[in-house]
Amino acid sequence: MENDGTEAEYPARHATAPKWRGVITGCNVLVVSGVRGRVTRRSLLLFIAMSVIWGISYLFIRIAVHDLSPVVLVFARATVGALILLPIVVARGELRGLFKSWLPLLVFAAVEIGIPWVMLSGAEQRITSSLAGLLVSAVPLVGVVIATSLGNREHLGGTSLAGLLLGIVGVAAIVGFDLRASDWLALVQMAIVVVAYAVGPVIVSRYLSALPSMAVIAVSLAACAIVYLPFAAVQRPTSMPPIAAVASVAVLAVVCTALAFVVFFALIAAIGPVRATVITYINPAVAALLGVAVLRESFTVGMGVGFVLVIAGSVLATRRPRALAPAASLSPESQSSV
């Protein structure tokens, strides 16, 4: 996917305070810059770690919401994540000047974390974690539609349109062939998740691209924790939740949130954002495999075929036209690997 005004080329000023060079979409990553980096054993391990970390989140959400309300889960996850990341950004001095962009920052927090996390958790009370993960794979397709609606006509070519149609067929296959996906409320919630994850990058690129990325995430988590505090207090469990639910919340907060972003920024610094885009396609596969292996969820032929169609459609829809492929406009600064 190219830099078209809905996604940003994110320059790196220095290693301790990386600016946005990739677009974070909750448990997925859409990366758009033309930076290339050397693949080492360390970067390969980081890539594998990210693929697993954001892939397992669907499994642990499914386990947690069996005993906790979505609001309580999101509050706990955001609170712990903020408590871990905020000291890091404070020590780096990355909060300075951040609140000058308080309005888009709050909107980003709502669109990228507050709304989709609650919707995803609510949906997983009704559908399998495998299905949820596969449906989120449609985020790149929605991103193309948003980019086009905002004036980027590059995606109106035959290949991109064919990719969109193929992706739509894939989503229909995932949903239509899964008899357990009859809960339309859950499907509406998943649609909101996909749209929110696709809109988040637009806010970043237009209003937050000059800010330190980890600081934006840390403050967004803190804002969501504050907003959900009174609601979580009302819906808090009346007794101690089962150990499985508590452990799931801990994994989601510490591993899938705080550690995930630290590892992600290290990965971008190691290999550049282009190669990291593959995470977008691996996460749903990890989610589906774990759902089947751990929770004994069903995995139908339609889900498998649909996932392949969605991935193929995303690749076609986001492919840059050959005439625009060279990244000659990239500055030396944006080509640095942090």
Indicate the topology.
Elements: E1 23-25, E2 28-30, H1 41-64, H2 70-92, H3 102-123, H4 129-136, H5 139-149, H6 158-176, H7 184-208, H8 213-234, H9 243-271, H10 273-276, H11 279-295, H12 301-317, H13 332-335
Antiparallel strand pairs: 1-2
Helix pairs in contact: 1-4, 1-9, 1-11, 2-3, 2-8, 2-9, 3-7, 3-8, 4-11, 5-7, 6-12
What structural keywords apply?
disordered N terminus, 2 strands, two-stranded antiparallel sheet, 338 residues, mainly alpha, single chain
Description:
This protein has one domain. Helices cover 67% and strands 2% of the residues. It contains 13 helices and two strands. The chain has helices at residues 41-64, 70-92, 102-123, 129-136, 139-149, 158-176, 184-208, 213-234, 243-271, 273-276, 279-295, 301-317, 332-335; strands at 23-25, 28-30. The chain has a two-stranded antiparallel sheet with strand order 1-2. Strand 1 and strand 2 form a beta hairpin. Helix 2 (70-92) packs antiparallel against helix 3 (102-123), helix 2 (70-92) runs antiparallel to helix 8 and helix 6 (158-176) runs antiparallel to helix 12 (301-317). The longest helix is centred in the last third of the chain and has 29 residues, at 243-271. The protein is globular and about 50 Å long.
